[in-house]
UniProtKB/TrEMBL annotation:
<protein>
    <submittedName>
        <fullName>Uncharacterized protein</fullName>
    </submittedName>
</protein>
Length: 116
């Protein structure tokens, strides 16, 4: 379900994967400042939901930021992740997104979840 506000779009999902014993609730926020860039990518919110369902534990293990890289489209999405005490889950905010061909420098900085 997509909610649209003055700040941007938000989606409520569950994440799972690996070390998680049960699904964790999270809210994905796509702020207005990155919506135009996000809409040009081939990776969409369903792709994000699917990868976080499979590998959500990798996102939760990140201290404050993680990235998703779609190898087939070269889409790179960088997220902030925080606890969301109001909903007993996690708040994930898309902070930037772009096409990227060389990830060697970024891999040293952020945990990266790869699609395809």
């Amino acid at each position: 379900m997509c909610r649209v506000s003055e700040k941007g779009r938000s989606f409520g999902f569950n994440l799972f994967g690996g070390d998680l014993d049960f699904p964790e609730r999270y809210t994905l926020s796509i702020p207005n400042k990155v919506i135009d860039y996000f809409d040009t990518l081939e990776t969409d919110e369903e792709d994000i939901e699917n990868i976080l369902w499979k590998l959500g534990d990798a996102a939760i293990a990140a201290k404050d930021k993680f990235a998703i890289y779609n190898r087939s489209t070269n889409d790179f999405l960088l997220f902030n992740i925080n606890l969301n005490d109001a909903y007993d889950g996690f708040y994930i905010n898309l902070s930037s997104c772009f096409k990227k061909n060389n990830l060697s420098r970024i891999k040293k900085i952020y945990p990266i979840i790869t699609i395809n």
